[in-house]
Amino acid sequence: MSRDYALPPDRVRRSDRAVTDEAWIAEMLTHAPIGTLATVHEGQPFINSNLFVYDMTQNQAICLTYRAGPGAPRPNVEGDAKVCFRMSAVGRLLPADEALEFSVGIPAWWYSSAPR
Asked: Which of 31, 90, 41 is nearest to 61 (CA)?
């Protein structure tokens, strides 16, 4: 099965896994412990794991970043529209008879910005 990686950045490739329930998204944003912010600086991609808080009144995630210099999140976000934010939390343990089959359910949600 071939993959179409040329989809618009705001379209979910796996539509069967898309989350559209605003209440679920707000709940996840409120309780997720960590977010990953992907940015670009002069064509170079950067990914930063950040603590974040969700402001329900403004409907925005606020990343708490402490990096400066090339690849720092804030100047990258301000300088390029190509941004992706992903949050996740550890879900329930999925035990198995063999260690190889053991897993953890990870609820996740991400947002990818459309180019300006």
From this structure: 31
